[in-house]
Amino acid sequence: MSAIGKGITMDNLGSLSVFVQVAQTLSFTAAGRVLGVSSSAVGKSIARMEERLGVRLFHRSTRSITLTSEGALFLERSRRILAELEAAEQELTEVTASPRGKLRISVPQVRGLLMPVISDFMRAYPDIELDVDFSDRMVDVIEEGFDAVIRTGKPEDSRLMVRHLGHYQLVLVGTPGYFDQHGTPHRPQDLNHHACLRHKFCATGKLEPWPLRPVPGAAELNLRAPLVSTTIESLNHVVQEGLGIACLPDYMVNQAVQHGRLRRVLDEHLEHRGSFWLLWPASRHASAKLRAFIDHMCAGLFPTDAAV
Known about the structure:
Elements: H1 13-25, H2 28-35, H3 39-53, E1 58-60, E2 65-67, H4 69-94, E3 101-107, H5 111-124, E4 128-134, E5 148-152, E6 160-168, E7 170-174, H6 176-182, E8 195-199, E9 224-229, H7 232-240, E10 245-249, H8 250-258, E11 263-265, E12 274-281, H9 288-300
Parallel strand pairs: 3-4, 3-5, 8-9, 8-10
Antiparallel strand pairs: 1-2, 5-12, 6-12, 7-10, 7-11
């Protein structure tokens, strides 16, 4: 076992804090000022630690203090140990405490799906203050200071923790009255003769493609769009007015389909499977309020969808 591998016990965690403070300030005097002890006491603590580990942690001169290579390695491990200790202490403190405080979250503009669950959360946790940003853009969770974010599509960001919330599918719908008047499409090419209500991405201005399987040898679709909107909720309103066909997530239209207000078409020609994900900073200890929000959203949004 190497000298550094001899371990840190509970008895010398105080010395570990001294070492980290010196490494951050590169000054015995500055470290002592932060810790409330003399520079002499700091120097003696570092000397005892070096003797115990059998390595020099700092290069010292009359003008400066710098970390040795062994000290740099030890610093990385030490910070991790102290962070874990801080997280453990916070968890113990929060065991009997009810979740409280402000929670800043960003969620997509699907209020019909999210607001009932968020309202239930507010009733369950009255001491938590929610600051909600409704936006479909890809926010920078850490740089913009969000505690948690809900988005579709799983991001590949090592700085974030991720929980799967549930699946959804995009479907094509219209009212029975619309289909009685304009006919029911039986193949994708039939859509060229219908009013197609389209969604446009706010960030790029591009139309969202409808997830229709390619038909070999068929001409490219030329969909007529009497309405293009940056929100799917406006499309849902217009399609239920009988003004065309819209491509919408199943969770938004399931109830209307079940009650006969909307009818799904071309299901056999569609291929789509999307997911909602909950993201939060990996470097941040999950506080009681954040854990409560994560658990509530996982249980409430898609209760019948097995989590991954």
